[in-house]
Design brief:
3 helices; globular; alpha+beta; 11 strands; two-stranded antiparallel ribbon
Amino acid sequence: MKLVGYHATVTPLRNILNGDKLKRKQFDALALPGDLGTGTYFFKDNPELAKQFLEKMHPGERIKVVKCTIEVDDETVLDFNEPESQEMFNDFKQLKLEQATKTFAKLKGNRYCIDGIIINLLISAIRDQDKTNIKLVIKDTFTPTKELFAKGRFLTSNFVNGTELCVIDHNIVTKGEEYNGV
């Protein structure tokens, strides 16, 4: 599978790219993961949404968008747009909800979505049971942007506005370059 993903950053590009390769990022083990688990997030084929996502958290800062080519074997992808993956997630969530809730209480951050914790646990279970290392998580999602800010909060929606890619293994990012189209 070959995809194009866009990642926005306020960090100088030399700090995230080594030539055209994505540098390995260290994640805080005590921080709440994103909605799709721990990894580097991209928006599939949508540089504008990548930029808008970061603008809401870094208003007034200079935002750069990186266009990356992502190449990964299908069997190492967890695609939550597939009904069988959604069913697997929901079944696993029922089994691990208590453990995930206890983990949530110990982690720092201001997020209130437990899905990333469940997905991290699911990825570990797949690795232990099937000996498969999941390298990419895909899901159509709704991402709030600064245009959806009202009454001191970001508004949400039940309708998707993009596809998020959570890259777990940075080796699948085969090319990265600054994107100047937004």
